[in-house]
Amino acid sequence: MACADKTLVCRECGQTFVFTAGEQEFFASLGFQNLPARCPSCRAARRKTRSGPKPQANRCLYPAVCAGCGAPTEVPFQPHEDRPVYCERCYRGRRDADGEKGNEASRERRLIKT
Question: What are phi and psi of 113, to 5 degrees?
């Protein structure tokens, strides 16, 4: 199916832009069914503002001591005496270890059921 260039109007800036046949084929290969509503420069600007985690300049960090390795660390919540606090490395290690156990347990349950 041969596509022809289309002239569209950007809903952000109101400028006209050309949606080329090549772009149409690329969009179709990605499964997009709608025409783009923004020109390439407005799309790029929108991606730039939406990409990545938001900066947390006013984030308050609290000092703590890691319950796993004893290293000083900072956490984004007020630590309590009755709950352990982990540094990032120990937290990731515990999370990964728990995930592996969970996957093994799930696999064992599936084997028992069948």
Answer: -65, -30
CA 107 to each of CA 94, 96, 97, 112: distance values in angstroms, whole numbers, following the listed order? 20, 17, 16, 9
- Both tokens assigned to 93: 């290690």
Answer whether 80's CB lies under 8 Å from 97's CB: no
d(CA 60, CA 76): 6
How do the pLDDT tens digits run along the chain, 114 residues long? 578 999 999 999 999 999 999 999 999 999 999 999 999 999 999 988 876 666 566 778 899 999 999 999 998 889 988 999 998 899 888 888 776 554 555 444 444 544
> Of 94, 55, 88, 84, whose CA–CA distance to 74 is shortest?
88
